């Protein structure tokens, strides 16, 4: 009987939850997708072919047991489905919302390759965990016993929080240090609410705090506490700061007023959503209302910026990217959502300079794709005589992020970094050149996805537990 719940891909078409119309969702920062109805979630999960080699699981950084929890969902065994998903993923409700499934699990679904349309894995994952919260299946963190060892985690983003969760469940004393006034890192201040509503993040942070994790917010390591003090206070330290230094442009006029960093723009918008007093927003400096907005970049951060500008009431929103749609790094789903909402993409275009002391325009040079480079990507080449100017009252630079110089910033001797500036650490144990100091997430691997940070944080926690060793009372038995 149970087997009849599966293999529906030949009779049931792929469906996403209802998506709010653009003219309605453009007015607020609420998530754009509704929840699956119970029957719809079961039917969509039942489209899974239960293939012998699950490429969806293989291509998930966390190697989530996707076929197992799809089958349990199709059979109506939702609590078991949640428990299976929670075994490998600390924050499944967050990954279900913001992972680029079209590049990871869903993009490698076997039935997608056969032309039947992928299983809607991300939306089912979101449905399972949201149901778990509603039904009280998400249990508080209550270690079976308390240990004396402590770990200090620098950075309250996804990597640091994933490690904090795992360590606290083992009874380790955990303190998370973060320079911002709220935990969550880019999940809180970098990702807009229409992709990840903030109460979803805050629930997990509340769970960690209720479970005994101590948060020291507004605490800037190197200023409010030295790195050596922090090392002296803990048995191990995990560096999970992420990367916040914005890659910059070198072009005439780049210093003009009205040219801003994506992280500043998104943070101001998210703070406004929390109800904070944001002078830079109120003054118009970081507010797109009534303006011609140009966003430079083609990644997910650029998509967040253009879609935020639409919601702030921009007069026009354009995105300049030097390659074409096929070669852009951002999620194709996000591009489609942005186009639905009125964003214009100007492909094969790059900024040459900016006009005005307060920016009035972007000088654009058109490109074409030439021969592939060493990575296999075609290299953009300038087209002579094709320059023109785009009107712009606000220009947002979304060119990616680089690591800060932590050894210099923190005054640390012996902390080795790579030639890219990331902290040098073993990719299995995550241990750095300093004994008892670990690193995870973007500060180790470079700017990447939330799901990779979660994986790194979980791995680092396992390595720290191995270093700490068995608790005294167990060893004595």
From TrEMBL:
Gene3D superfamilies: Alpha-helical ferredoxin, FAD/NAD(P)-binding domain. Residues 25-136 form the Dihydroprymidine dehydrogenase domain. This is Glutamate synthase (NADPH) small subunit. Residues 151-457 form the FAD/NAD(P)-binding domain. InterPro entries: DPD_II (IPR028261), FAD/NAD-bd_sf (IPR036188), FAD/NAD-binding_dom (IPR023753), GltD-like (IPR006006), Helical_ferredxn (IPR009051). GO terms for molecular function: 4 iron, 4 sulfur cluster binding; metal ion binding; oxidoreductase activity. It comes from Tranquillimonas rosea. The keyword Cell wall biogenesis/degradation does not apply. Keywords: 4Fe-4S, Iron, Iron-sulfur, Metal-binding, Oxidoreductase. Pfam families: Fer4_20, Pyr_redox_2. SUPFAM superfamilies: alpha-helical ferredoxin (SSF46548), Nucleotide-binding domain (SSF51971).
